[in-house]
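User: My advisor asked me to double-check a structure prediction for DUF1249 domain-containing protein before group meeting. I don't want to rely on an old file, so could you generate it fresh from this sequence?
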Amino acid sequence: MSRNAYVTDLKTLQGECTANYVRLSRLLGDMEVGETREVELVSHGRRVGALCLELLERAPYTSIVRVSQRGVLDGVLETPRMRVHLYHDVRMAEVNDFQRQRHFDGRYRYPNARMHQPDEKLQLNRFLGEWLDHGLAHGHSLDLPELP
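Assistant: Sure, here is a fresh prediction for DUF1249 domain-containing protein from the sequence you gave:
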């Protein structure tokens, strides 16, 4: 039985990257290079961790942000960590590094040596969006009192 090859859905990927740019812009605010912001995550009145944002680089057309999480399972499980490039001229943010793996292709043959899914790049950017949405919806930061 033959299987159709995955075809990259550029429109969906660009939509995710555009939405992530908006989410990150809200969370970053006016941060300076080297600055870190932690958004505490609360569930049922208990602190369950923090979404950590660190502005690594800023240039006129691009910025690089490290997004990671601290939580109750630190030291037990490897915590999620990614580098995200923000492209200010096109207002898009794209995951370029996840758990020390870099430069994701838009499409992978499956199976492959690294066990990437055929749409790995889209899935990583969706994950970033869900992660940032959760921080915006359930997070609390002393630096940004306007966050819900």
